[in-house]
Amino acid sequence: MAKNSNVPTAHMYLGIALAMQRKLDESETELKLAIASKSTDIFLSHRYLAGVYLERHQDLIAADELENYLKHFPKVPDAEILQKKIKELRASK
Description:
Elements (H helix, E strand, L loop, with lengths): L6 H14 L3 H13 L7 H12 L3 H14 L6 H13 L2
Helix pairs in contact: 1-2, 1-3, 2-3, 3-4, 4-5
């Protein structure tokens, strides 16, 4: 059976939807599955996973995920804001 390249994207969007519903554990699982696929279409998962960690006050892990997101999307419109947030999160611990 051929590997379905849409599966990582499905995990990402399910993870995002679960995050929006504040189902953090389920969201984390789905987003991590998307990231583990190493697909180039799932980098937004890092941003939402950072949000999950922020909700749990896991600041250092959230900063790591934001850095991963910016590594793949360095020119997003809010990159400067995200860089400041990363510094704040790292300084808070």
